[in-house]
Amino acid sequence: DAKTTQPPSMDCAEGRAANLPCNHSTISGNEYVYWYRQIHSQGPQYIIHGLKNNETNEMASLIITEDRKSSTLILPHATLRDTAVYYCIVSAYSGSARQLTFGSGTQLTVLP
Amino acid sequence: EAGVTQSPTHLIKTRGQQVTLRCSPISGHTSVYWYQQALGLGLQFLLWYDEGEERNRGNFPPRFSGRQFPNYSSELNVNALELEDSALYLCASSPRAGGNQPQHFGDGTRLSIL
Questions:
Q1: Regarding beta strands B87-94 and A9-13, do their DSSP bridges make them parallel or antiparallel, or are they unpaired?
Q2: Averaged over A47-73, what is the pLDDT?
Q3: Which residue of A has its CA nearest to B107?
Q4: Rounded distance, CA B108 to CA A44, Å?
């Protein structure tokens, strides 16, 4: 699986959009981009995933650049409960290797 | 719809003992994954089960083992516990082998070794 690079920490004001970047310059054509978040002492929560088109669900939007070498997770109106570590993962889900490889992630702190 | 459930939530053991952790996947999911998250470290992949078979394992010693039952629930067994096994053990499930369906995680079992 391709390696990802994320900033270690970011702050965001409550009610504003949080834009979390991720670089995955070695991504392969069959690898998807997945975003998870982990609030302290809980299991990772799935947020969104995509291959090459932008995606949106009730939690967030995922913007993937045309060359697929980077992506941005957007939380449109951040709340205090969005404070968490956010992980960007690329994975091909091949037949013999379906595990997710978690990096260090980005600690997002939403400030009141 | 119920999410992935794990039991127990907390466990305290001593060195040399054995432990069994349990996981029930989301209904309809056939794949179960186990991960270890030691304090201050990232999630490390342990095992993947699908349709009752072990499909892949991470870089962990053989004293870490498990199984998947016909109802797709799973157990993780750890023998000869060591202090370094203290960690949050997470289970995840996904709908089927192959494809891009995401894994969904439970809230884990926190294992403390004294």
A1: unpaired
A2: 95
A3: A43
A4: 10
Contact B45 A99 (CB under 8 A): yes
B83 contacts chain A (CB < 8 A): no
- Give the pairing of strands B74-78 and B64-68: antiparallel
- Put simply, the chain B residues between 87 and 106 with a CB less than 8 A from any chain A CB are 88, 90, 92, 94, 97-100, 102-106
* Residues A58-83, mean pLDDT to the nearest whole number: 97
Q: How confident is the model at residue B40 (pLDDT cuts 50, 70, 90)?
A: confident
Distance of CA B15 to the CA centre of its chain: 20
- For residue B91, give every residue at least 6 positions away whose Cβ sits within 8 Å of its Cβ, in sequence order, or none: B4, B6, B21, B23, B25, B32, B33, B34, B35, B74, B76, B105, B106, B108
Q: Is A98 exposed, middle or buried (0-12, 13-18, 19+ CB in 10 A)?
A: buried
User: Who among A36, A43, A51 is closest to B106 (CB)?
Assistant: A43
Residues of B in contact with A50 (CB under 8 A): none
Sign of CA dihedral B48, A32, B44, B92: negative
Residue with tokens 């404070």: A83
Residue in this structure with the two tokens 């109106």, named with its chain if needed:
A77
Average pLDDT, chain A: 92
Cβ contact B56–A43 (<8 Å) = no
Per-residue pLDDT for B98 more than 90? no
Sheet holding A18-23, edge to edge: A18-23, A70-75, A61-64, A55-56
